[in-house]
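Notes from the 1:1 (GR / supervisor)

We went over the backlog. Supervisor wanted to see one worked example end to end before approving the batch request, so GR pasted a single chain during the call. The sequence is below; no edits were made to it. Supervisor asked that the structure be written out right there so they could see what the output format looks like.
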Amino acid sequence: MPTTSAPLKIPRVVPQRKPRQPRENIPQTREEREMILREVRHYVAEQTLVPPVPMEDLKQHADKLVAALNSKEIYRDYIGILINNELWRETLAAVPFERRLLMVPKCLRVEAKCPAPFDEFGLLCKSCGLCSIQDLEYEAEKLGYAALVAEGSAIVMSLIQTGKIDAIVGVACIPVLERAFPYMEAAAVPGVAIPLLQDDCIDTTVDEDWIWDYIHLTSDDKTRRLDLSTLHDEVDTWFAPDSLEAIMGEGEGDTEAIGRDWLARAGKRWRPFLSVAAFQALRSDADEPAPEDLKKIAVAVECFHKASLIH
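Structure output shown during the call:
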């Protein structure tokens, strides 16, 4: 007896998005943008610049390229972003995918038809097929990236501070990229940014293949990287009362008891953490437990800090 199967569901045709004119401060044709990118790569290859490069210096280099290319001065910020991308290119390539973040803006969606809801972190893509967000997010997560459909310097900074992100591939309009730049520069986090072609926050477009190139960028560099968040948590445990007694020995007298009580109180422990991080970065057997002498050094550094506050 023949079996019946469920009706074949044909994916609905995704409407072709209408091309939009780039903002006036963006090169107007794909050919011109590709030409500028080639010239930027040639220019950076001839320089001895070491990232992070301050924004004012980037603008000076962009001015030189604008003059050399006989380009429009209004393209300076766009060219500066491309220069910064190339400066970080090799560093990004050496960062494992699982230590990278992809950030794309919600304005890439088709706003009038997008069914995706929002939470406190951003847009929750429903993979409806109306825009490229689902493909970018899927591909990045398949490689091992963390992916976020959101934008804003506050989000960038909070993610950097977790210690779990070593590089960022971002998509945003030029004003947003300029606001986020100081945070990236201060943290010296490798980052490349693909500028949106518009900045009106609705149904924006971007050179999508540039995003794909960057998210797949890799190298054979297998440099070991520390899990700074876990390391910070470990150092913090060394200041629990029981741990302090194990490291320093049994306390003597009321004065030392008061000192240890203050030492054990909650704090950021940045000084001992940085001391331990430097040691771990230089040792060849970083997967081994922290030596007891290292714990003593970390506690001693914090003791000096506490003493300086009292003095």
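Supervisor's comment: The chain has a mean pLDDT of 85.
Batch request approved.
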